[in-house]
Amino acid sequence: MDSIRTQAYAKLLENGIQAIEEVNRLLGSGYTRDDIYVISHNEDREGRIVDAADTNEVGLQEEGLFGAIANMFRSRGDALRNKITSLGFSAAEAAFYEKELDLGKVLVIAKKNLH
């Protein structure tokens, strides 16, 4: 990951309403919907928040084909850590965020590619 060309921001929130508010705040500060990702330990909850905020889930483009296929065989926690690292965070940061997600929090990540 080329950290010079990428800026990544992450914020843990208590619930979906706060996550949607954070997405709107990020949109107002110059990020686009394509720059913003929502991650939750509960896949259904994550999908509802992504739909309501009209933003992204981490997918094939971010993880790559191998990562996406590997996630099909990983535990949810392992898959979440992989998704977080695919957005430019260290393994230690991903482990911290995943533990917080395990407690019911929602993670909003904004990643802007600088061209």
TrEMBL record:
Residues 11-104 form the General stress protein 17M-like domain. It comes from the Bacteria. InterPro entries: GSP17M-like_dom. Pfam families: YflT. This is General stress protein. It comes from Paenibacillus graminis.
